[in-house]
Amino acid sequence: MNESNKTTMAIASLLVGVVAISFGSIFIRWSEAELSPNATIFNRFWLGSVVFGLWQGYKAIRQRLSGDKPVQQHSYTSQEMKLLLGAGIFFAATLSFVAWSLTQTSIAISTILHNLAPIFTSLGAWLLFGQGFNRQFLIGMVVAIGGAIAIEIEQIQIATGEVTGGIAAILSAVFLGAYLLVIEQLRTKFDPITIQLWVCAIATFSILPILVFTGDRLFPSSVNGWLFVIFLALVCQVLGQGLLTYSVARFSSVVVSLVHLLEPVFSSILAWAIFGEKLSFSNGVGFVLVLIGLYLAVSSQAAVDIQQNRLESG
Where are the transmembrane segments (predicted)? Predict the structure, then answer.
């Protein structure tokens, strides 16, 4: 596969992954009748662990039967284990803080503050790896984040009692940025299935103590409840996060975090199509700003990433 095809595949994977993740709010809303947000996340992770584990096992059996050497036969180094552990904990913390923020503040405020993740990803890439950004990227990032804010601006209600929820949402953005930075490091050695298997397994055991402490119900009690969490795991975790992890081999974590800003766009469209929620003028303006900002920022940074990949492969 030539460089152009690889880039096209990565772009397609990134976009499809974000669309899949956008279904998360839909499935969580459907499961609210039976499970708390943290319990829903717990089921997402353990079901994801099962799917990725079976997938990994199938790959190993197929490789053994065909006589091919497994792709990865090395022992895990302590550094690799730390990165895998960090990825699982960071992602579990991301979704837990999002769930907590939704119980303390409005969906609009939680969504806006959570979408500040590109700022923290860019800051981390600059501080940890010395990555620089040109003016076009910075302008595009500001425009895209502004568009994400515009999508939810009409629903914002300022209240002093919502400070805790706002802090939780900001923390979720920080942890999402850290998660993407760690995934970028892991993708230099591991395939997406291996990474997501570890992430799901570690996140499962990270969320479980919270549920034990709160006394929440762990599993759904009806067929519909099970279908909702199963589809949440398959669509959002296996398909969505799997494709995003795949794309990180081609694009930097900063680009991936920026494309994440399409999530509120797709979520709003899905809510309109499924629940009949109205789309306002500010929603439309926000959609346009997100797309313009993403074009400016992603085209700028993606060109740098592609050039770097060519140099490394050449």
Answer: 7-29, 41-61, 82-101, 107-129, 136-153, 165-183, 195-213, 225-244, 251-275, 281-298
